[in-house]
User: Which sequence fits this backbone?
């Protein structure tokens, strides 16, 4: 049983029910495990919710957590993956003063170099969106910081796995 | 109530439904699930349901307990002795929060229970309305499933799911919170039992390869040992376990919650494991070469220090709940599935064996324990009465037929150690949570579910007073339970720890007690107090002969300790005899 700490992305397929967030987060809270990020959305299957939860934890710890999550009645299936087993992204928004966009070429260079997108330009401010992994977003943040960031927000990680997850097969087996 | 056949416009097909209120639907759902008795306490937010219970009182018996905690423990006692789902009901707010201890107890001890709470009307949710509490939020970590209903039409499906979830797979408590407007609302009622939920796989399939591996390990073992738990009882696998034990000739021990699955007197029953378990099975856990765990979860009170627990042994784990595998003890072979099926399939793969020398080791260590502990517990020569001799007297007079409902503390360990069981589901006690106050209300439920059985409750003077008000329930319902209080005028188990580990600093463990006999008599319960050895036999016999509830207080030695004992953090093989 290794005690080595790793970043894991937990993917959970569940029924879409009120209260599940509480039930799942309680599993982490009870063991005093900090959730780095959490995202819940629809999935490729109608009526099924998909969660992405990022935690930094030991290998043994994550296996036990997955067992506890899967045990919940409304959880269809739970998986955990290391970063090399998934394709993942985070997304972020920067709110910056408008005049900088027109007066400073450097910002335009940062935007194109980082594949950022201008979401909107208002009289007083403009909004940039960029997606990528945590590092890429951090680079962008560092580059923009000197210009004065009015607001910054980053989403939780979302991820798809390299391997097939076979949830549909699982659900089909049930209806058969 | 009339049955109307409505023709649904959409489908144009006749449909047999009845238009009834949500509250009536709740009662009808309970009836459809075969519920004949439930325990609870009324209040504003659940009144419409009580109004229906009044109408249906010839079909379903509602027992008014004296506290909602009592209702949950009674439902637990009912479930534990019968295997059926226990049902408890309460109003919103304080009624609902009073259920929590019992729910947590049922969760950790895998007891099938459905709790129904009333809730403020849906338009008031979240407004801090009178007696509004977020009971779904509060109960989430201690329920197998919970759900809030705000529309009458949801009631049948949700209640059907509740019963299915509570009793299937590894059982547990479910809470359904129903707003008052949903109780009043009328709808077209129709009930269908729930038989499957797509996101829920209650019983994993038995893996044949794992089973064969387990059989191979067992067949080649030199010193195999079985430890079984409540999974055997919950899975009604008692006969299958007995067959396996007898064919393979394996010495077999039990956890507290597994007690009584195999009769105490069975020659291969080597006693209890854990903190106050028997000497031999604890010691030899660290000597066996194959440890076969069946329907048990390696609780820390069973394993002691995990770093030194059965390290020399190959571990086989028969378990219904995948999350229990490798949770505390790393297994070599895990056989998932229901104990009944797994053991049935295991039996033909096993060779007939006997291990006379290995078995003799258990007998030798038993002799040591008998000499150092048991003899003095059950046949004491000192003046003061011991808890053990009371248990021994109950054994003799009940011929081991009684169901023993124990509370939490020294008397509980003594009851589990010395009760002589002949019938399964006879040891009902709060194991995982260790809930003082469990026994008296649990005994009510147990006696009601098994009226033909002798039900003897055993509590300490501390725990007894945590739910003593349930004497009122016993009085009102005329429930013929036998109530034994082993009075040492201390919170005995805590005092024992203070003596052993805190230099006898008896902080807040001494009890100044009321006249228990007078209290019982106040409820018109026949009562007696025993202070001397020569009064014990007759008092127990009077109690056993009584056809009604009976209260017996036995004043025992104040500062006796329970041994053997594995101190917290110590290894099972470092079990102390004194
Ligand atoms: C509700 C609750 N509170 C506190 C405890 C801690 N506790 C465990 S055993 C015990 C003492 C029990 O005393 P008593 O009921 O007199 O039984 P005895 O040990 O003397 O047999 C206490 C306080 C508990 N288990 N449950």
Assistant:
């Amino acid at each position: 049983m290794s005690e080595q700490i790793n970043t894991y992305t937990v993917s959970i397929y569940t029924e879409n029910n009120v209260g599940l967030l509480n039930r799942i987060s309680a599993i982490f809270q009870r063991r005093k495990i900090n959730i780095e990020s959490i995202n819940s959305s629809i999935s490729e299957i109608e009526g099924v919710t998909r969660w992405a939860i990022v935690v930094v934890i030991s290998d043994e710890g994550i296996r036990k957590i997955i067992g506890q999550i899967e045990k919940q009645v409304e959880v269809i299936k739970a998986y955990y993956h290391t970063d090399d087993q998934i394709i993942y992204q985070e997304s972020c928004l920067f709110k910056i003063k408008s005049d900088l966009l027109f007066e400073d070429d450097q910002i335009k260079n940062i935007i194109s170099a980082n594949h950022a997108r201008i979401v909107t330009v208002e009289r007083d401010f403009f909004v940039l969106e960029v997606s990528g992994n945590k590092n890429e977003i951090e680079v962008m943040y560092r580059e923009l910081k000197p210009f004065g960031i009015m607001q910054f927000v980053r989403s939780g990680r979302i991820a798809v796995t390299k391997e097939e997850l076979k949830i549909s097969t699982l659900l089909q087996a049930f209806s058969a | 109530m009339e049955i109307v056949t409505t023709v649904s416009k959409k489908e144009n097909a006749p449909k047999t439904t009845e238009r009834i209120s949500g509250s009536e639907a709740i009662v009808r759902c309970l009836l459809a699930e075969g519920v004949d008795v439930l325990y609870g306490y009324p209040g504003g937010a659940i009144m419409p349901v009580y109004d229906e219970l009044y109408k249906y009182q010839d079909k379903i018996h509602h027992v008014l307990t004296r506290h909602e905690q009592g209702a949950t423990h009674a439902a637990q006692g009912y479930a534990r002795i019968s295997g059926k789902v226990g049902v408890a009901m309460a109003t919103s707010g304080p009624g609902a929060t009073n259920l929590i201890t019992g729910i947590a107890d049922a969760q950790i001890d895998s007891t099938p229970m459905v709790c129904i709470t009333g809730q403020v009307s849906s338009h008031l949710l979240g407004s801090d309305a009178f007696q509004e509490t977020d009971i779904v939020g509060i109960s989430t970590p201690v329920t197998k499933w919970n759900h809030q209903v705000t529309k009458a039409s949801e009631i049948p499906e949700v209640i059907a799911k509740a019963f299915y979830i509570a009793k299937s797979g590894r059982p547990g408590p479910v809470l359904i919170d129903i707003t008052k407007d949903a109780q009043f609302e009328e709808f077209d009622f129709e009930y269908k039992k729930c038989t499957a939920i797509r996101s829920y796989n209650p019983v994993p399939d038995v893996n044949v390869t794992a089973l064969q591996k387990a059989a191979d390990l067992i067949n080649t073992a030199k010193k195999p040992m079985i430890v079984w738990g409540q999974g055997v009882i919950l899975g009604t696998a008692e006969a299958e376990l007995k067959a396996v034990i007898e064919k393979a000739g394996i010495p077999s021990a039990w956890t507290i919650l597994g007690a009584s699955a195999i009769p105490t007197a069975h020659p291969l029953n080597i006693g209890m494991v854990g903190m106050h378990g028997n000497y031999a099975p604890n010691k030899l856990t660290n000597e066996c070469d194959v440890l076969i765990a069946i329907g048990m979860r390696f609780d820390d009170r069973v394993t002691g220090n995990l770093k030194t627990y059965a390290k020399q042994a190959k571990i086989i784990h028969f378990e219904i709940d995948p999350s229990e595998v490798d949770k505390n003890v790393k297994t070599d072979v895990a056989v998932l599935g229901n104990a009944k099926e797994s053991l049935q399939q295991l039996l033909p793969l096993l060779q007939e064996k006997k291990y006379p020398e290995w078995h003799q080791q258990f007998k030798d260590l038993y002799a040591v324990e008998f000499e150092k502990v048991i003899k003095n517990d059950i046949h004491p020569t000192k003046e003061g009465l011991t808890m053990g001799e009371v248990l021994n007297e109950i054994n003799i007079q009940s011929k081991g037929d009684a169901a023993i409902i124990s509370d939490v503390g020294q008397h509980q360990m003594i009851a589990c150690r010395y009760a002589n069981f002949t019938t399964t589901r006879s040891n009902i006690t709060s194991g995982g949570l260790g809930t003082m106050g469990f026994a008296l209300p649990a005994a009510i439920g147990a006696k009601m579910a098994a009226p033909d059985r002798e039900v003897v409750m055993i509590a300490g003077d501390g725990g007894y007073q945590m739910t003593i008000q349930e004497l009122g329930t016993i009085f009102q319902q005329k429930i013929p339970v036998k109530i034994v209080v082993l009075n040492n005028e201390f919170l005995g188990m805590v005092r024992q720890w203070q003596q052993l580990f805190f230099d006898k600093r008896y902080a807040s463990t001494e009890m100044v007690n009321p006249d228990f006999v007078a209290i019982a008599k106040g409820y018109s319960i026949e009562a007696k107090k025993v202070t001397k050895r020569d009064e014990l036999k007759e008092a127990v016999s009077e109690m056993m002969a009584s056809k009604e509830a009976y209260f017996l207080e036995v004043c025992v030695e104040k500062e006796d300790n329970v041994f053997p004992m594995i101190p917290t953090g110590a290894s099972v093989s470092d079990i102390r005899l004194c």
Observations:
- Residues 379-568 of chain B form a domain with the Rossmann fold fold (CATH 3.40.50.970).
